[in-house]
Amino acid sequence: MKTGDLARLADVKVETVLFYEKEGLLPRPARTRSNYRDYGKSDVARLLFIRRSRDLGFDLQSVRKLLTLADDLSQPCDAIDAIASEQLSKVKRKIADLKALQSELKNVVGQCKSGTVSDCKIIEALGSL
To answer: Which domain holds residue 15?
Structure first.
């Protein structure tokens, strides 16, 4: 299949496919006589794996490690567990940061009395100009 077909099947842009190929996450495909890239079913599966990993917030380095580990089905999955656990910790930290941000914004907005800008607690909380 051509690049556009692969992109459609994985619900990504063509540029994304080419980027992952350039980064070495997708293997360079064979070429047709017309010099089009010719992807197969395994490329679809690999691209879906990459896309899902990215959806879960894994950075490219982690995706690369996961792919390398997934390519050797005989090894234990301790390293994969460690990568996933690290990502979970990052997500928990982000959630905590977002909750703190939500609380702070709620507090500032709650002080708003809909007066004039000179009395605006939101502007005051952001710092004077």
So the answer is: 1-57
Residue 13 lies in a domain: yes
Backbone phi and psi for residue 14, each to the nearest 5 degrees, phi listed first: -55, -40
pLDDT tens by residue, 24-33? 999 999 999 9
Tell if the pTM clears 0.70, that is, is over it: yes
Residue 84, class by beta-carbon neighbours within 10 Å (0-12 exposed, 13-18 middle, 19+ buried)? middle
Residues 60-99: tens digit of each pLDDT: 999 999 999 999 999 889 999 999 999 999 999 999 999 9
Q: Is the dihedral of CA 61, 62, 64, 69 positive or negative?
A: positive
DSSP H or E stretch at residue 96: helix 78-110
Task: Write the DSSP assignment of 38-70 as a string of letters.
Answer: E--HHHHHHHHHHHHHHHTT--HHHHHHHHHHH
Q: How many domains does the chain have?
A: 1
Q: What is the per-residue burial (b if ≥16 Cβ within 10 Å, else e) of 37-68?
A: bbbeeebeebbebbbebbeeebeeebbbbbbe
Task: CATH number of the domain at 50, please.
Answer: 1.10.1660.10
Structure tokens at 7: 């992109």
